Amino acid sequence: MTVIEINHLKKSYNPDKLAVNDVSLSIEEGESLGLVGESGCGKSTLARCLLGVERVDGGSITFNEKPLANANRKDLRDYRRNVQTVFQNPTASLNPKLKIKDSLLDPYLQFQNELQLEHFHFTSKQAFVEQLLEIVELPKELGDRYPHELSGGQKQRVTIARAISIEPKLIVLDEPTASLDVLSQGAILELLATLQKSLGMSYLFISHDLAAVYQLCQRIAVMKDGELLDMFQKEDIYNSRRHEYTKELIGIF
C-alpha cells in the first residue's frame, strides 16, 4: 500500500528559481526511502512541504489515497498525527524547560482521544514513558531529567521515542545523525532499523550521507538543484545506468 504520494511538486522562494522543481515520488508501507543530495538541493524544502510547514506552489500530496488539497479539518489532523518528524538537532527539538517525560507525553496528550495504539500497552502515563524509553534503549530514570542533562545521542533517542509514541505511518528523518559523533550515528541507524521492523512504519530519510542512506533504506532518490534526477533500489546503486550526478556521489561514498 502507498502511504504517501507526491506528484509534480513545486515550491519557489524566488520567482526565478524553483527550490523544488516538478518532483514526483511515493513511499510504500513499511519502506525506507532515502533522499540524498548536496546542501541546498531542495531536500529539506521538500520535507517542509510534506510536513505542511511550507505551502506548495504546484503539484499534489496524497496521503492514504486522500489528496491533502481537498482534506477537511479531520483529515488534516489525521495527517498531522500520522506524519511525524525527527530533525538534525535534538537540542532544538526539545523544550529545555520540560522534563523528558513531559516531552514524551506531549504527542499522546494531543491525540489521545483519537488513538488506538497497537504496539504500546500501558496502565499509566508513567508506564507509557518507561515503555518509550525502554524501546529506544534508554534507562527509565532519564524521564525525570531535563534535556541539558542528556548527551546528544540520548536526546536524539528521546526525539525518536516521541515521534513513534503515537504510532505514525510515516516519519520524516531530516539529517537525524548529522550532529552526532560516529559511534552515536551508527547506533541511531541501528535503532531506526529495529524500530521500523517492530512497528511497521515508513521512513523518508533525508541526508547528504549516502553511506547512512545505503545502510537504512531500500530505495534511494537523488536530488540536485531542486530536481529529482535518479531513483533506484539500493542494490542497483552501481548500475551503469545511474545518472552522472549519482555516480559523482558514489565516488564520495
From TrEMBL:
Record carries keyword ATP-binding: yes
The Gene Ontology terms for molecular function here are:
ATP binding
Q: What keywords are assigned to this protein?
A: ATP-binding, Nucleotide-binding, Transport
A single Pfam family it belongs to is ABC_tran
| PROSITE patterns per UniProt | ABC_TRANSPORTER_1, ABC_TRANSPORTER_2
ABC transporter domain location is 4-250
Q: Which InterPro entries match?
A: AAA+_ATPase, ABC_transp_ATP-bind, ABC_transporter-like_ATP-bd, ABC_transporter-like_CS, P-loop_NTPase
Answer whether the UniProt record assigns the keyword Nucleotide-binding to this protein: yes
The secretion signal range is none
Note the PANTHER family from the entry.
D,D-DIPEPTIDE TRANSPORT ATP-BINDING PROTEIN DDPF-RELATED (PTHR43776:SF7), TRANSPORT ATP-BINDING PROTEIN (PTHR43776)
Instruction: Family membership, please give it.
Output: Belongs to the ABC transporter superfamily.
Q: What is the protein's given name?
A: Dipeptide/oligopeptide/nickel ABC transporter ATP-binding protein
